[in-house]
FAD-dependent oxidoreductase
Amino acid sequence: MAHGTGSSTRRGFIGGATAVAATAALGTTPAQAAPRPARRPGARSGGREVAVLGGGVAGLTAAHELAERGFKVTVYERKSALGGKARSMDVPGSARGGRKPLPGEHGFRFIPGFYRNLPDTLRRIPFPGNANGCHDNLVPSTEVMLARTGGLEDIRIPFAGIGKPPPVLTPDVFLRMLTAFFETFAKLPAHEIAYFAGRLLVWFTSGERRRTREWERVPWFEFTKAARMSANYRQLLAVGITRNIVATKAEVASTKTVATCIEAFLFNALGRGADGEPDRVLNAPTNEAWIDPWVTHLRSLGVEFHLGRCVRDLRLEGGRITGAVLEDAGGARRTAAADHFVSAMPVEHARTTWNAGVRAADPGLARCDRLETDWMTGIQFYLTEPTPILHGHVNHIDSPWSITSVSQAQYWSGRDFRRDYGDGTVADCLSVDVSEWDRPGILYGRTAKRCTREEVAREVWAQMKAGLNDTGRTVLRDAVLHSWFLDPAVELGGSHATNDEQLLIHPTGTWFNRPQARTAIPNLFLAGDYVAVDIDLATMEGANASARAAVNALLDATGSSAGRCAITPLYRAPEFEPLRRQDDLRHRLGLRNAFDLG
């Protein structure tokens, strides 16, 4: 195994840059550590100043929408870079000969066609030579693969040719379509295929009352009756879907969340209500294709950015937020004043800023303490030969660490990896997401959290080879492995592993603890992938939609005449609407869904 640049610690990677950025932007020294008093909101700004707390997708979206409506926006971000978990980052010490550093990332980008709100934002970010801005940097994949181990044939699912929907979706047509799909690609017993298709029909015809009040409380494992089915059924349709896509365990994952995601993918594959193809990636590292142009555009709209600012507290006076207490890398504190505040931090960080007074002003915020997060973290492998395993994502469905991957260089049009990145010998980047950090691996018999960074890299590499090299073809070769890079937010090598950038997961009942964008405090609004939106999944689309909802709530609270942000809901088939309305009535009467045979 090649020695990895991923051995750099998070502190070593961002600590120095954070300190320099914080000192330069704040102009503070340790002697100025005491918080400065905030001015009275609205005193000089006419009520148009907004502090956005967090510079990820939610924060940047809120800043974008507010700036376009004439608000003076300042974004405060605790890290030394913008973009949150969506950003790409330079691998330290990897550049040679005038090339750019190797591109690392928290995890690969995946922008399915059923996203509608995020693509709208991408179209509104100018990009040189693109008629549709950064949206034109989206490129489609043509297939997806489920990589099996133990000599089982991998399941390849092409996207081309499946985008023609039947003219009308009746229950019979729907069942036949799903049966054919799973019979062709999953090779499951006929009775299990029919049963799973029937369970999806139950979901598609369930009304909102049943979806929220009943299926939100039922684990996906129970809904699909996985315990009484074959091992393949459990692995492909219960465990694999939830752990690799929704990043939670099938035994506890909310049926509402999992089925909402499946429903969106299926309609996307049918070409209904979609912005584009089911699987899309960017044609360059994320910052080059999206984040950097976005920040440049926001600056042109007057948005100000302050990096290296960690929000420690919110000051509440007279029932309103008067300031956010910020701490820089050197420990100096100051209070940032504004008329309105959009909290756009991840939930595990946002809820630490809600003191007793804030929680008393909005008791509903306490429910966010019940929201759970888990690890879904990326590692990149840099290869000396082009290795396009598949023109799409690979789900290593049998891997104990629930691995998904994508070969990126094949998508990066106009870029030559050897010419543009690293030391001139790297030709490809295999970007991998690890969703399970608490199960033993196949090399060391330890969980990922109990491994060192080097052991994680070796283990992930071995698990990918176990699925790709087991049917007589050598796909991954040790000889072409140049180096690797593990997300610096992860700290390993001890008994108390930490991850500074976790992901919201969705066990049963999560929906009831997700807040709305508008709080009971008239000038505090919430944005982030934990806020309740239609997609019901922690995604960039959810972050974007929640930010739009927060801006609309702010506009309502201020009586603004500005146009509201459009928020496009997930597609619903009109053919099923009468059945969904009928099911709402059946639910009120205490009856099962008409297609629910148990």
